[in-house]
Amino acid sequence: MAIYLDHNATSPMHPEVAAAIMPFLQQPPANPSSLHSFGRMARSAIESARAEVAELLNCTPEMIIFTSGGSEANNMFIKGFLDYRSDRPVVSAATEHPSVIEPLHQLEAEGRNVVWLPINSDGRVDLDASATVLAAADPQMMTVQLANNETGVMQPVDTLATMVERERCLLHSDATQVVGKLPLDLAQTDVDAISFSAHKMRGPQGIGALVTRSKPRRALIAGGEQEKQRRAGTENVALIVGLGKAAQLARLEMGARERHMKELRDAFEAGLADIPGSVVFGAGAPRLPNTTYFAVPYYHGETLLMELDRAGFALSSGSACHSEVTSPSHVLKAMGVDDGLALNAVRASFGMDNSLDDVEQLLSKLHDLINRLPAVMRRAAG
Prior knowledge:
About 40% of the residues lie in helices and about 15% in strands. The chain has helices at about 15-25, 35-55, 70-80, 100-110, 125-135, 155-160, 225-230, 235-270, 300-310, 330-335, 340, 355-370, 375-380; strands spanning about 5, 65, 90-95, 115, 140-145, 170-175, 195, 210, 280, 290-295, 315, 315, 320, 325, 345-350.
């Protein structure tokens, strides 16, 4: 049986989430905007889910806009809240998720000014250098993720907020990797909006939210009056119910989740340290409790992934293959990691279904793969 260690890509759905969704896939169809009893039942289910998400994040239900996931929510904020009449820049970081970077590249192609904050070797925004950049930029919008999906590195978003005029700058954070793994109290966090996806916290795929204190200048999806005219389209009741249940479970299990995942990550990294020449990227920075982005000597990331996959382990790589050309992770490039080492990068991201036995089996397999290398290569790594 395969050992799944790719929870930052997607997490297995919690059985209670699946059970909550099922009735809404089996009962008579109902449009939540309809006034008959079936429609009212669907509307009530949506609003109950909205309240569960609000309780998890300590915000008001009115702040929550349901979307198809984190990517749509990120695009919704960037494109929907931007003041196109202003020439003041948008600020972000080169380590962001592609669903932030690509919309910003689109804006750059249209002639808009996007300022990229400097990143240090640990994968964190360089605060000293950023203070100078932000003072000169006078941005209208800043979007910096709370935690990186590859390295797990946490960004100092609240500190960055003190470096801009908050009355003049909207602050957004992609919180997809944080929601459900770590406590997030929006009443105590100085951001105007966050994005997240249900499937990163044991919910269903295809549903997420933008949580915002204000109304967008324009709707990314225009049409009907759903989501208070902020996102048109008939709501997917079953998936929204699943998101609500996942939020409820995350709130109830938060402490246990954090402790369990950190125990697994720390055990894995302790064992990884016994492999000569191994590297953990971002190890010197605050990180998610479940994420280790690492490289071992002489194993290209894609090759190592295939070897592990054949042995029954599901991990992911930081490199992407397009048209037979392998490129290093954009996150590691921003951190100044050498391309050769970056191409060796592999990510293990643990979840509640994993155990210390899974960690021990993974470490045993890694040691076995290293021991297969010619002796001269192993001596060079040491």
